[in-house]
């Protein structure tokens, strides 16, 4: 715990030093203006910002709020309902802690590392402390929306991605270990991947750079950056962490399927900000993403339930919820590039393939992915990346710009994502184990992380 507090203190000390530097930078132009205000006037007039489009701006702010709504409260309730009642607050605390810490990191240097610089694999520090970000400026993500809202929209993606990992290690990883793991993981995995896939100079950016990138892959809203990275990291972490105490010996059923279902509904609604918001405006592309997201989620939820009915004899609420989330995951990288019929194909496959990863593959391999993060996000994200290469509409201008070899590039991008996520997670896990330890004692795990980590109980009944 002292290590975590020391890191936070060092971060804030660095931040205030950076703020002083920013203030000094800002003071220099001001002094120059007092010397020669007349000479600067024409240049200032030429650099007058372009007026923001009110409709696009309003949709982007709404989308940003929706994506945050996915994590708090959507994912928190979805995961919280699936654990035993003695661990529900631990899941909520992890989601809250991640949201706060990632916000600080994003302001400190995360946005700059992800979206500045001409490097292929990582950005530079030109925009640390949001240097140069202005609510009235445009041009970073779109000429029609505020530079400021683009930055915060991307922050909400950065928040939910590591929070997804929590599902795999629920009920058996110390809060301090989770926080330190996420801190290191953001620098080792998320910031580089976001840069490689979504920055125009990135190694795997086909969306903005056409076929100029070494791997010209397409990822509309986060199949590789969000779902594959978190899914494969979750698998490795849960294996290295080990199974829950008494796993396989005692019943570990969800304590509240009601909370899970409510969380699923919030995720579905929030996902419109995730996918349609990635069009960066209230336009035809946003409508396409909105429709394809709806079709895939609804179809996958129904198909998962029917497959479960055939396979296990009854369709469960958990099955419908898992299918909906799987459909949302699989359509995410493709939602702006496919036709409506393509979305139906994705929904069908999303209800079948992740189902068998969750129900059959996990049982055969014997790993304890507590809330099926890998089966839904790792397998689903990989499926979505591949299907983007298969189903992308050639009449779409972005797809056409990538030209030939899209499917191969999607596979290559997926492979890079898997290797980076797996290797980084192994290294980070051993670092965290050495610094703060990974697991509570068997006794603390039996009592529950709500009391042992947070001194609270979710229910007083």
Question: pLDDT average, as an integer?
Answer: 90
CATH classification class: Mainly Alpha
Number of strands: 0
User: What Rg, in angstroms, do the CA atoms define?
Assistant: 22 Å
Number of helices: 17
The main β sheet shows up as:
none
What do we call the CATH topology? Ammonium transporter fold
Instruction: Please state the second-level CATH architecture.
Output: Orthogonal Bundle
Percent helix among the residues? 55-70%
Attribute tags:
Ammonium transporter fold; mainly alpha; 461 residues
Give a written overview of the molecule.
- The chain is an all-alpha fold.
- The chain has one domain (54-450): Ammonium transporter AmtB like domains (Ammonium transporter fold).
- The protein is built from 17 helices and no strands.
- Helix 7 runs parallel beside helix 15 (406-435), helix 8 (257-275) runs parallel beside helix 10 (317-331) and helix 9 packs parallel to helix 11.
- The chain is globular, with a radius of gyration of 22 Å.
- The chain starts with a helix and ends in a 7-residue tail after the last helix.
- 55% of the residues are buried.
Could you give a short description of this structure?
The protein has 461 residues and is mainly alpha-helical. The chain is 69% helix and 0% strand.
Give a topology summary.
Blueprint lengths: L1 H34 L1 H10 L7 H29 L5 H28 L31 H19 L9 H24 L24 H19 L15 H19 L8 H29 L4 H15 L8 H11 L2 H13 L7 H19 L5 H6 L3 H30 L6 H6 L1 H6 L7
Helix pairs in contact: 3-4, 3-5, 3-8, 4-5, 4-6, 5-7, 6-7, 6-15, 7-13, 7-15, 8-9, 8-10, 9-10, 9-11, 10-11, 10-13, 12-13, 13-15
């Amino acid at each position: 715990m002292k290590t975590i507090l020391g890191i936070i203190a060092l971060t804030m000390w660095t931040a205030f030093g950076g703020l002083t530097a920013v203030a000094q930078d800002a003071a220099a132009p001001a002094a120059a203006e007092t010397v020669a205000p007349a000479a600067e006037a024409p240049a200032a007039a030429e650099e007058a910002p372009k007026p923001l489009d009110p409709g696009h701006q309003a949709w982007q702010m709404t989308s940003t709020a929706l994506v945050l709504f996915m994590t708090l409260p959507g994912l928190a309730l979805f995961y919280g309902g699936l654990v035993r009642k003695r661990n529900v607050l631990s899941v909520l605390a992890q989601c809250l802690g991640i949201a706060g810490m990632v916000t600080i990191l994003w302001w400190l240097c995360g946005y700059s590392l992800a979206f500045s610089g001409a490097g292929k694999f990582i950005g530079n520090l030109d925009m640390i402390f949001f240097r140069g970000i202005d609510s009235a400026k445009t041009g970073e993500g779109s000429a029609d929306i505020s530079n400021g809202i683009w930055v915060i929209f991307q922050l909400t993606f950065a928040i939910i991605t590591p929070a997804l990992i929590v599902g795999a290690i629920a009920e058996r990883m110390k809060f301090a270990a989770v926080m330190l793991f996420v801190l290191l993981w953001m620098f080792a995995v998320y910031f580089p991947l976001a840069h490689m896939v979504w920055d125009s100079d990135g190694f795997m950016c086909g969306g903005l750079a056409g076929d100029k990138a070494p791997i010209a892959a397409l990822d509309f809203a986060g199949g590789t950056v969000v779902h594959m990275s978190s899914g494969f990291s979750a698998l490795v972490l849960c294996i290295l962490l080990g199974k829950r105490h008494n796993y396989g010996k005692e019943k570990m059923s969800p304590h509240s399927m009601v909370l899970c279902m409510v969380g699923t509904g919030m995720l579905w609604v929030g996902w419109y900000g995730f996918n349609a918001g990635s069009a960066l405006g209230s336009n035809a592309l946003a409508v396409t993403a909105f429709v394809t997201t709806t079709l895939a989620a609804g179809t996958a939820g129904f198909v998962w339930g029917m497959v479960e009915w055939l396979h296990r004899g009854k369709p469960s609420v958990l099955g419908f919820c898992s299918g909906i989330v799987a459909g949302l995951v699989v359509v995410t990288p493709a939602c702006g590039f496919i036709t409506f019929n393509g979305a139906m194909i994705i929904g069908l496959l999303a209800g079948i393939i992740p189902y068998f990863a969750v129900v059959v593959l996990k049982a055969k391999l014997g790993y304890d992915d507590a809330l099926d993060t890998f089966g839904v996000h790792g397998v689903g994200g990989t499926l979505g990346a591949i299907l983007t290469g298969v189903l992308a509409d050639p009449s779409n201008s972005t797809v056409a710009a990538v030209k030939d070899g899209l499917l191969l590039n999607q596979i290559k991008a997926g492979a890079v994502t898997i290797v980076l996520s797996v290797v980084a997670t192994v290294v980070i896990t051993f670092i965290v184990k050495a610094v703060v330890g990974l697991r509570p004692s068997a006794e603390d795990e039996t009592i529950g992380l709500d009391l042992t980590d947070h001194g609270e109980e979710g229910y007083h009944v």
